[in-house]
Design brief:
The chain is built from 3 helices and no strands. It has 69 residues and is mainly α. The protein has a domain of 31 residues.
């Protein structure tokens, strides 16, 4: 593979796309599962950020009685 990229300059994403196009049909599901796994790894950070932004309604003077429960 190193020899291939030596003669054909391309981005890593382009190379990945080229390699995915050459994956045999019986391995496509495995590659897809791996790509979905990678995608899910970044989602918890995004979900945490959204959750933190939506917690402001808990911080109000009307509910201070519950702060020490």
């Amino acid at each position: 593979m190193a020899a291939f990229t030596k003669f054909t300059p391309m981005s890593k994403k382009e190379l990945a796309h080229l390699l995915v196009d050459k994956v045999p049909n019986n391995k496509v599901a495995e590659v897809l599962n791996f790509l979905m796994f990678i995608q899910r790894q970044k989602e918890p950070d995004e979900l945490l950020s959204v959750a933190e932004n939506n917690l402001d309604f808990w911080d109000n003077s009307e509910d201070e009685v519950w702060d020490n429960v």
